[in-house]
Design a protein that fits this description.
The structure is a homodimer. By secondary structure, the first copy, chain A, is α+β, with helices and mostly antiparallel strands.
Chain lengths: 471, 471
C-alpha cells in the first residue's frame, strides 16, 4: 500500500525559502575554504595501468566487452549506429552500458523556516578538483544493494524507507547520450523532519548558496547540478523571489520568462515540433563485440580511435588516502579535449527565450533529446569537422553578452578530468527569430515542464539550467 | 527552415465548436445508416490459408521471423521476456515488430464557424464490422513512401506538405504493448482552409457526433479513438460546453473533473509515484528466433501456444469486392477470447477521479504505461490464472453504476475480429481511496497532460478516454 507522502505545494514554499544565501551553519565563502581543506586533506592517486593489471575487471573471453567480474556496475561494449541525422550516417564506437538506474538523491530539512540541502564533499577519481559538492546520496544499484560487499552508502535508509521522509521531487533523467547507452538516474529530493546526524564531509546549504557556487569552476558536481535543475522555476516566480540575484536589472526579464507571460510558441506547438522531428529521424543501435568496433583499437593500455578523436577508455588504479587508504581499479573514459555547451538566449515579446536544439545522440533513449544551442563534447569544437550552427557566435560573444561562464566537470566516477565550458550568451534584436528546423525557442517554464517527464531535456541542457538564477 | 504554423489556442476554440451534434452534412442517425450501406456494398472474404500459400510473405530461411519479402510493413518475431513484475517472471512469445512510425491523421476544416473532422468508412479485414469510421489518413511508412508500389493514400499530401495545413495536434502514441514491440504512431490533427474534395467513402463529422458513435459497438475504429483521445479536455471546460451531454446531472461533476479543481494528488506526486515504480520494475526483452519460442509451435497453418491461450498468428487471404476486386495475403493475430478494459471512477473532493494502473507489458517502450483499472486482453478474464484487482467489481457492476459500456475493435489491419468490452464504472463513497501501490487516482486533466508526452497512457486507456464525454 503506497501512502503518497508528498504534500501539494510543499515544494514551492520550502524552495522559495531555500533561495536565501544567509546560512547560519556556513557562509558561501566558508564553503569554498572548506572544500579546499577537504581537497588538501586527501591524496588522490590516479595511475594509468594496463588492462591486464586491473583487479576485478577483465575483458570477456570473446573480447566482446570490458566488464566487472561480478557482472555489476557497468561495462564497456561496442555499438553500431545507423541514422539519417546530419553528415555521419553510420559509425561504430565503444559505449558505457550501465542498465541499472542509480540514485542521485538530496536530503532536505527545515531549520527556522528555511529549507537546507545536505550535500557532501565527495572525492571522485576523475574530477579536476578531486573533491566536489555532491548530492547526499549518489549510488548505483550495485552500491546500494551491496551485492558485491562493502558497506551501505550513508543516508541510504532515508531514501529506501518511504516512511522516513516526504518526497519533494522524484524524476528519471538521462545521462550523456554520446557516452552511455540509454543510462538513466533517479533524481530525487526528500525532506526529513526527524533529527538527523550530519556525518563527516556533509554540510547543510541553501539552494541559493548552491546556485552561487555553480558560478565557480568545478565546485558543484554534475550529479548535484542535474538534481537541482529539476526544481520548478514557477515556484519562485509566484512571489518574485529572484531579488537576491547579483544582476537586478536582468531580474524583471527573468521573472517574466518563468511566469505565465507570452511565449513565442505554445506548449502544444513545441510538442508538435518535437514529434515531427522524432518521426523524421531514425536511430538504429545494435550491440557489437568491443574488439570488432571499426576504427577503434584495443591496445594493452587503452581503447582508442584511429585518429585519437573523441575519447579513450583507459584503465586506472585509484588510491585515496586521508585517514585511511583505499584503492581500487576501474576503467575511465578520457575525452580528447575539453568541450563546450552553451545556450543562446534572447528577449522575445519581453520574455527571455532559450534557443533549444533537438539533438540525436547514439545513447538516447528516444532518438532526440532537447539540448543546448551549442553542444560540442565528442568532436573538437576548435577544429570542427562540419559546420556547427551558432558556434562562432558563442565563442566570439562580447563580455557584456555573456550571462554565465564556468568550467564544469562531468561525472568523475566515469570520466577522467572531463570538463566543459558552460556558457549562456544573450543576443539582441538583430538575432533572427527564425532558426533552423531542429532548433526552437522555449521559456524557462516550458523547459521545466519538459524536465518533469522522462528523457526530454538532456544532461547538458540541465547542467546549464541549474545555473540559471545568476543570468 | 520550419515555420511553426499552428496558432496558439486555435485548437481550443475550434474544438469547442466541434462538440455540437448538429451537422448539416449528415446527421448522426444517417451516419449509422450510411455505414451499414457501406458494409452491404462490399464483400469481404477472409480465408485462412497455410503460411506456405501466402504471396509476398514467408518465413526467413532460418525460421527466425515471418516477414514481407520487401522487408517492409511488419514481421512476426520471437522475444524472451524477463521481469520482476507480478507472478510470471519469465516467458517467451511471438510479437509484431513494426519499427516504422505510421500516420494516424485527421483533416479538419471549418464551415460556418464549426470545425468538422474528415473520417472515412474504411474496410479492414480483421474488423467485426468490416467497415468502421477511420481517420482521414491511416498509413504506415511502407504505405505512404510507396516503396512497394501501389498508389499514395488519399489526402497524404496535406500531411506531408507543411504549408497546406495548420497543425492542431501532433503526438507520438504507443500501440498494444502485449502484441507490438515498442510500436508507435503519429497521432496528428491538421486544419485546412482551402477547398478540399470529399472523396468517396469520406464524410465530415463533428467531434460531438464521433463521440456519440463511440457509444455504439464497433463503429469507430481504434485509430480514430486514439487520435481524438489526445484532444485536451481543458479546452471544453473553459466555457463549460458539456451541456449537449445526455446525462446532464453528471455534467457538473465532469466539468469539475477537467477543471482546475482539487485533485487528490498533485501532478508532481503522480510523476514521483510513476518514477518509483519505473525504478522498481525491470523489463528485459531479447529478440529470439520465432521457431525457438518456448511453449509456442509453428504449424503449417498457425503459430499457437501449447494450451491455445493468448492468441494465434494465422495466415489470411483477404478479398475485398465492391466495384473492383482486390486481394492480398497477410498474417493476422487472432485472440483466444474477447477482452475487457475498464476504468473505475469515483468522486473525491467533489471531483471525478479515474483509478489508473501502472502496467508493465512486454512491448512497452519504457517499462510501464498508465492503463485502465482493469485490462484483461491477453489472458481469459472469465477464468483468470491469478488475481486481477477490481475485476469482480467491474463485471458485477449494477446497471446504474455503469457510465459507459460498448464493444470496441482493435485495429483490423493486424487483429482478426479482436474486440474488447470497454466499460466505465462509477463507485461510491464506500470504495476506499487507498489502493494497491501500482494504482493511483487521476483527474481527466491530469491524464490528458500525460497524454501530451510520449508513451505515458497506453492505447486501452486512451480508447476509454475517447468515450468520456458521455459518462
Amino acid at each position: 500500500m503506497l501512502i503518497h507522502s508528498m504534500k501539494a505545494n510543499q515544494l514551492n514554499s520550502f524552495l522559495i525559502s531555500a533561495l536565501t544565501e544567509e546560512n547560519p551553519f556556513i557562509t558561501t565563502a566558508e564553503v569554498e575554504v572548506w572544500l579546499e581543506q577537504q581537497n588538501h586533506a586527501v591524496q588522490v592517486g590516479i595511475e594509468q595501468i594496463a588492462f591486464s593489471e586491473m583487479t576485478h575487471w577483465n575483458f570477456s573471453q570473446d573480447q566482446s566487452r570490458l566488464q566487472h567480474q561480478s557482472g555489476g556496475f557497468f561495462s564497456i561494449e561496442g555499438i553500431h549506429v545507423r541514422t539519417n541525422w546530419r553528415e555521419v550516417k553510420e559509425w561504430e564506437q565503444p559505449i558505457i552500458n550501465q542498465p541499472e538506474i542509480g540514485y542521485l538523491g538530496i536530503i532536505t530539512k527545515e531549520f527556522n523556516g528555511i529549507l537546507y540541502f545536505l550535500l557532501q564533499a565527495k572525492i571522485e577519481p576523475g574530477n579536476i578538483n578531486y573533491v566536489q559538492l555532491s548530492p547526499t546520496l549518489q549510488a548505483t544499484r550495485s552500491n546500494y544493494s551491496q551485492v558485491h560487499g562493502g558497506k551501505a552508502p550513508a543516508y541510504l535508509e532515508y531514501f529506501k524507507d518511504r516512511k522516513r521522509a516526504a518526497i519533494l521531487m522524484d524524476q528519471l533523467q538521462s545521462e550523456q547520450g554520446a557516452r552511455f547507452l540509454r543510462k538513466r538516474n533517479r533524481n530525487i529530493i526528500i525532506q526529513v523532519t526527524e533529527a538527523i546526524e550530519v556525518q563527516e564531509a556533509f554540510i547543510w546549504l541553501t539552494l541559493g548558496q548552491i546556485k552561487k557556487l555553480i558560478l565557480k569552476d568545478n565546485l558543484v558536481n554534475m550529479d548535484t547540478r542535474t538534481v537541482i535543475s529539476g526544481i520548478p522555476f514557477k515556484s519562485f516566480e509566484d512571489i518574485g523571489l529572484f531579488s537576491y540575484n547579483h544582476n537586478p536589472v536582468k531580474m524583471s526579464m527573468l521573472i517574466s520568462s518563468v511566469g505565465k507571460g507570452i511565449s513565442i510558441y505554445s506548449f502544444e506547438e513545441l510538442v508538435a515540433w518535437l514529434t515531427a522531428l522524432k518521426c523524421r529521424y531514425e536511430l538504429i543501435v545494435t550491440g557489437i563485440p568491443l574488439n570488432q568496433v571499426k576504427k577503434w583499437t584495443i591496445t594493452d593500455w587503452e581503447i582508442v580511435e584511429e585518429e585519437g578523436r573523441f575519447f579513450k577508455v583507459i584503465a586506472a588504479r585509484v588510491t585515496i588516502s586521508n585517514r585511511e587508504v583505499s584503492s581500487w581499479c576501474q576503467p575511465l573514459v578520457k575525452p580528447a579535449q575539453d568541450g563546450l555547451i552553451a545556450f543562446v538566449v534572447k528577449e522575445i515579446f519581453g520574455v527571455l527565450h532559450f534557443l533549444v536544439q533537438a539533438k540525436l545522440e547514439c545513447g538516447n533513449f528516444d532518438i532526440l533529446e532537447l539540448a543546448p544551442t551549442v553542444q560540442c563534447l565528442t568532436g573538437d569544437y576548435k577544429r570542427p569537422e562540419y559546420e556547427i550552427p551558432f558556434l562562432d557566435l558563442v565563442l566570439g560573444a562580447s563580455p557584456e553578452s555573456i550571462r554565465y561562464d564556468a568550467m564544469q566537470s562531468e561525472e568523475g566516477g566515469r570520466f577522467y578530468q572531463e570538463q566543459n565550458r558552460n556558457r549562456i550568451v544573450q543576443v539582441g534584436a538583430e538575432f533572427p527569430i527564425e532558426v533552423p528546423e531542429n532548433y526552437t525557442w522555449m521559456t524557462l517554464n516550458q523547459m521545466n515542464t519538459f524536465i518533469t517527464f522522462n528523457n526530454y531535456l538532456n544532461i547538458q541542457a540541465r547542467s546549464l539550467i541549474s545555473a540559471v538564477n545568476f543570468l
